[in-house]
Amino acid sequence: MRRFLLVLVIISLFPVGLAWAQSGEEEENYTREFTYGINFNSNGGLLGGAMIKQVYHLNDKWYHFWALEGVEVKHPKETRLQNLQNGASFVRGKSNYLFVLRPQYGREYTFFKKAAESGVQVNGILAAGPSIGILAPYFIEYDRSNYVLDPRTQIYNRVGPVLISTEQYDPKVHTNDGLIVGAPGVFKGLSEPAFRVGANAKAGVSFEYGRYMESVTGIEVGMMVEAFAGDMTMVPDAPKRNIFRSVYLTLYYGRRR
Fold it and tell me: What is the C-alpha to C-alpha distance for residues 42 and 48, in angstroms, rounded to an integer?
């Protein structure tokens, strides 16, 4: 995932040349911009989360903004396995999900403004804010049925009824992966949240496209660092961490006026 994001960062730098080419054209002006989009990052797997953002013009090439991001943060040691009997999958050793809400305040500096009906706008971005971490238990469905070893075949046979228990995954307790028959999903864990407080900061570059002045489509790429206080255990057998660093890419769409 990290390599994939780095490739996207490199690809996204090509529009800078277009911005230089358009510098002599008529520039557009706007006082506010509202955008929303989806986030990909090196700590979030295939899809990291979503964001909304409101931008206001300050003066000349400076803008300031308020934003809210909601993402899932995964531990790099997570490994997904599949039960060969029923096809259900689960994350081996995972005891907690981590979801994060990030209210942010930031500044944008416009390096190149786009023309009224074409071109690319290039902005530099700095932002910071609190992080509200939500640790949600990761539950699995564990087979607690009674099994007895047949001495002739050396195969365990179930004796009595099938007993499937839904429990928070603990790798020290649930030692037999073959008895994990599935995972009930994230909503089960969200019913028992634990909250953590932290802070985040990011630096990035955005490239905004748009055929007309009132619409905008863009890509933002950059790096983020985030730290939390308290126990942040997600995978008990993996090294503990309270600081998370990531490379991110956000695709967004919106309106301006």
Answer: 8
Report residue 38 as tokens. 């989806």
The burial of 187, by beta-carbon neighbours within 10 Å (0-12 exposed, 13-18 middle, 19 or more buried), is given as exposed
This prediction has a pTM of 0.83
Average pLDDT over residues 75-85: 85
Q: Which amino acid does the sequence have at 238?
A: A
CATH domain 2-256 topology: Porin (2.40.160)
Listed by start position, the domains of the chain span: 2-256
Q: Give me the pLDDT at residue 211, please.
A: 66
Q: What is the DSSP letter of 113?
A: P
Which residue in this structure is represented by tokens 């899809």? 47
- Please classify residue 233 by burial: count the beta carbons closer than 10 Å to its beta carbon, then call 0-12 exposed, 13-18 middle and 19+ buried: middle
Q: 52, 71 in Cβ contact below 8 A? A: no
∠ CA 144-146-149, nearest 5°, is 130
